[in-house]
C-alpha cells in the first residue's frame, strides 16, 4: 500500500486519520519540498509518533520513485506525509498513478490545504476562483510571466487568482518579493493588470498562532511590515459581488 498523508498546515490541524496512517506504515517519508509549516517538522513528528521518518527532497520522490516502488514490491507499506493536502498544488499524482498502474493500492488521506484555508479566511466566494499559479524566482535572470497571464485571464472572466509563492532550496519567497516580481512582469507586459491600486489579499503564516490575512493595495503592500514566511496572495477579480466587497472591508 502507498499512502499519501495530508498533515494540514500546523500541529493543531493534524487529523486522527493522518496520525493513524503515519503510525501503521512500514516506511514513512516526510515531503520536505512542496510546502512548509510553522510548527510541524521531522523532529516533532518523530516524537509524536515514536518512530523514524525519512526526509524526502524532490529527487527522492520524483526522480527516484523506483526506490519507493521497490519498497512496495518487497511487500512494505510506504507513507508520504505532506504539509497541507498531498494532492493540492503538488506533483504527487505522478507517483500515485505509477504505483496504481503497477497494481499497488494507493490511499489518499486529505489534509487541510492552504488553498481551502485562504479561500475560507478571505471570505471571497469559493465559486469564483480561477486557475491558481506559482510565482517563481527568475531563472538565469529570465522572469516567467505566467502568473501575469493567469491573473489577466482569470480577471477577464470575473475570477479570483491564488498565487502560491516559490519554495526554492528551502528558501520561501516572501509576499514582498512576489509583489516586486509582479511589478516587473507589468513592466514587461504593460497591460495594466498590476497597478499601484490593484487590491490583493495576503495570507501570512496561516494556521499558526500569529497568522494574518490582510487586504492591501499593491502600493500599501510594498511598504507593509511582514511576518516570517510562509506567505500566499490572492488577486481578487474586480467583478466583486456586494457581499465580497463587505468581506474585503473586514480584512483592511
Ligand atoms: C505549492 S503550495 C503547496 C500547498 C500544499 N500542498 C497544501 O495543500 O497546503 C506551497 C505554497 O503555499 C503557500 N503556503 C503554504 N502554507 C502556507 C501557510 N501556512 N501560510 C501561508 N502560505 C502558505 C506558500 O506560498 C507555499 O510556498
TrEMBL record:
GO biological process: methylation; protein histidyl modification to diphthamide
EC code: 2.1.1.98
Top-level class of the enzyme under EC nomenclature: transferase
PANTHER family the record matches: DIPHTHINE METHYL ESTER SYNTHASE, DIPHTHINE SYNTHASE
Entry similarity comment: Belongs to the diphthine synthase family.
Record has Repressor as a keyword: no
Function: S-adenosyl-L-methionine-dependent methyltransferase that catalyzes the trimethylation of the amino group of the modified target histidine residue in translation elongation factor 2 (EF-2), to form an intermediate called diphthine. The three successive methylation reactions represent the second step of diphthamide biosynthesis.
Pathway the protein takes part in: Protein modification; peptidyl-diphthamide biosynthesis
The Tetrapyrrole methylase domain, residue ranges: 1-221
Binding-site list for S-adenosyl-L-methionine: 9, 85, 88, 113-114, 165, 206, 231
Protein name: Diphthine synthase
Subunit text: Homodimer.
CDD domains in alphabetical order: DHP5_DphB (cd11647)
Gene that encodes the chain: dphB
Molecular function per GO: diphthine synthase activity
Catalysed reaction, written as an equation: 2-[(3S)-amino-3-carboxypropyl]-L-histidyl-[translation elongation factor 2] + 3 S-adenosyl-L-methionine = diphthine-[translation elongation factor 2] + 3 S-adenosyl-L-homocysteine + 3 H(+)
InterPro entries: 4pyrrol_Mease, 4pyrrol_Methylase_sf, 4pyrrole_Mease_sub1, 4pyrrole_Mease_sub2, Dphthn_synthase
Organism annotation: Acidianus hospitalis (strain W1)
Keyword line: Methyltransferase, S-adenosyl-L-methionine, Transferase
Pfam families xrefs: TP_methylase
Amino acid at each position: 500500500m502507498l499512502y499519501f498523508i495530508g498533515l494540514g498546515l500546523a500541529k493543531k490541524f493534524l487529523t486522527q486519520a493522518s496520525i493513524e496512517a503515519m503510525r501503521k506504515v512500514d516506511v514513512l517519508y516526510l515531503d520536505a519540498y512542496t510546502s512548509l509549516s510553522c510548527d510541524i517538522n521531522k523532529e516533532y513528528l518523530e516524537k509524536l509518533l515514536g518512530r523514524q521518518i525519512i526526509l524526502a527532497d524532490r529527487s527522492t520522490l520524483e526522480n527516484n520513485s523506483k526506490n519507493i516502488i521497490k519498497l512496495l514490491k518487497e511487500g512494505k507499506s510506504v507513507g508520504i506525509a505532506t504539509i497541507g493536502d498531498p494532492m493540492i498544488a503538488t506533483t504527487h499524482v505522478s507517483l500515485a498513478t505509477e504505483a496504481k498502474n503497477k497494481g499497488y493500492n494507493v490511499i489518499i488521506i486529505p489534509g487541510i490545504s492552504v488553498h481551502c484555508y485562504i479561500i475560507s479566511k478571505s471570505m471571497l466566494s469559493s465559486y469564483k476562483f480561477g486557475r491558481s499559479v506559482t510565482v517563481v524566482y527568475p531563472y538565469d535572470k529570465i522572469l516567467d510571466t505566467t502568473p501575469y497571464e493567469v491573473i489577466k485571464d482569470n480577471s477577464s472572466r470575473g475570477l479570483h487568482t491564488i498565487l502560491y509563492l516559490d519554495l526554492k532550496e528551502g528558501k520561501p519567497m516572501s509576499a514582498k518579493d512576489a509583489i516586486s516580481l509582479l511589478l516587473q512582469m507589468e513592466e514587461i507586459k504593460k497591460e495594466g493588470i498590476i497597478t499601484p491600486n490593484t487590491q490583493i489579499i495576503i495570507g501570512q503564516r496561516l494556521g499558526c498562532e500569529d497568522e494574518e490575512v490582510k487586504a492591501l493595495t499593491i502600493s500599501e503592500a510594498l511598504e507593509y511590515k511582514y511576518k516570517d514566511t510562509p506567505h500566499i496572495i490572492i488577486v481578487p477579480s474586480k467583478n466583486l459581488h456586494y457581499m465580497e466587497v463587505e468581506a474585503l472591508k473586514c480584512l483592511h
